[in-house]
């Protein structure tokens, strides 16, 4: 998909199971859509399977010019529940820096890039969850998508297991 970060981007809430239908219908209407995905691994029937899942489930980014008539048709597009805007007469786009950064992290299939190469002993920052913004050190790399880190918690070294995509290398 060719992405133009200079456009005004907005967010639409999807109907249940409406992603494919919304993307197809928006494309037919001449709108550009963007749905960043991430690689998700799960254990099913005793086997590990990988699949691509939306980074923001239930939402789709749509580019349009609010000064050109016809954009209100997005609200009645199959698969779309509603455009998330505060003022129907003057929609405010998402910050261009946010969209440019998000698109820069995605490859040509809109998959968010793999987490950085991590190794034992690396200093990392936890990005989300109850330990967000905590600086820690990688103790070991586990099978699959998890790492074990050592962090100072109440004056003691504590071991915690986290998914790789929730940390950034310092």
Name the structural class: mainly beta
- Element string (H = helix, E = strand): EHEEEEEHEEEEE
Number of strands: 11
Anisotropy-based shape: elongated
Instruction: Estimate what percentage of residues fall within beta strands.
Output: 35-45%
Total DSSP helices: 2
CATH topology of the largest domain: Alpha-Beta Plaits
End-to-end CA span: 32 Å
| Gyration radius over CA | 20 Å
Annotated CATH homologous superfamily of the largest domain: NusG, N-terminal domain
Q: Please report the first level of CATH classification, the CATH class of the largest domain.
A: Alpha Beta
How many structural domains are formed by the residues? 2
What does this entry look like structurally?
This protein is mainly beta and 170 residues long. It has two domains: 9-104, Alpha-Beta Plaits; 123-169, SH3 type barrels. Helices cover 11% and strands 38% of the residues. The chain contains two helices and eleven strands. It has helices spanning 19-28, 96-104, and strands at 9-14, 32-34, 37-44, 47-54, 59-63, 80-83, 123-126, 135-141, 146-153, 156-163, 167-169. It is elongated, with a radius of gyration of 20 Å. The mean pLDDT is 86.
